[in-house]
Amino acid sequence: MIKGTRLPVVQFTVRGVGSLIRELREAKSLQAKQLAAAAEIDPSVLSKIENNSLGLATDVLIRIAAALDIAPLDLAQRCLARVQFDMPLPVHAQPSKP
Asked: Which CATH number do you get for residue 68?
């Protein structure tokens, strides 16, 4: 980094990750209590995650992925696909139009 320069701050949040976990759980015909037990988390924590009111820590993501029989990297990539930027990217960082 060049002295005196600062990178623009871009805030982002992950929306819909809980919905994704719910979709995957329902696709496997699992009840929330079953997934929570298999992932060794409290059912109320899973409920908050699925309702997008609680963030998802890496260790919890790994346990949920294992309980859903999905590779943790696959689940992480699916979660990252749902990242939405709260502020637009700086012009120089936006992809060029074809």
From this structure: 1.10.260.40
